Amino acid sequence: MCDTCGCGDSNNITIHPRHNYNHDHNDNHDHDHPHEHSGNHDHTHTHSVGGVPYTHSHAHGHESIKSREIQLNVDVLSDNNSLAGKNRNHFKQNQILALNLVSSPGSGKTTILEKTIQALIGKHKIYVIEGDQQTLLDADRIEKSGAPAVQINTGAGCHLDAKMIDGALKNLTPEPNSILFIENVGNLVCPALFDLGEMKRVVVISVTEGEDKPLKYPYMFQTSHLCIINKSDLLPYVDFRVDEAIRYARSLNPELEFLVVSARSGAGMQEWFNWLEKLLNSN
Amino acid sequence: MEVITLAEKEAEKANAASISEITIEIGTLSGVEANAFETALAFLSTNTMLQNSRVQYILTKGDGFCPACSLHFEMNSRMDTCPRCRSFPSEVKGGDAFKVHSLLVDN
Do B104 and A69 touch (CB under 8 A)? Predict the structure, then answer.
């Protein structure tokens, strides 16, 4: 359950282990045995002493109900934040460059990752954690492009949190000196509030969206380090003004870096790879 | 839901039988919509220790600070420009918390 917007149910999170894709097996292991514990164990007993019945009372003093105040002052997201810190330490100790990719649905995160993996897999060890509400489709795509991937299905949930990453890491076990891409659930609202322990946050927007997106979802742009503007090959056909989008985003976050790319055509992708290399060298 | 888990954990730690009241602090700049949260909490507290609890809210105002002219002002959104010198962005100094403030528990 997302405390920030009220969506979802945390009991429905599924982390799909690797090597579990495309294995359909229809094994009918039905377990149809209800264990009912109705709990009503009747027992009869006469209340009598020496044959003389007596009425018995359940006299007990009503202890006064004591109300106590517990002062907590606990940040609701503190559990997430401490787990994120644990993830971050793990990444640092093992020199794993962990990046959290956030965007609205359909901006091209998965395509960017596919092309990145195809280009860099010969040179670097790359791992991917995929977050989607449903399906293994994205993890399948990533594995086809050559990187091990674990899929997290959040059910009705709208974001990944640090605990899910912790769970996925146990399964994915990325080697030291590697890159870990975490593709968050497509949503520009709640993922902004949840630190996963990443080193950098990358927000992806595409030119088919409005250039005013940074103003509409300020928190996401304020908490990101790099903004990738994707689908630049479509610029001739849309009204998206790159300069305006950058101006809006910089007004919120003057430190934000920008890359204009087309994952489809490959334009600008080299600059993205250079950005990654620079981080790896400083890691 | 994190708030419910947290409250139940603390109540159990204090050997309390029930929670009669919970006080939750939500800042204007916390990113949490108080109305949406209230609805969600009412819905999800069924069959938990918070089912019959009173819920009190402390709604804190955003505290903005303009680094350009050093003015503290009430910030309603992170997008607010400084009301005195119009510069942007301002720093968030408070009103961004989302906390379980306290519990009232019974033995």
Answer: yes
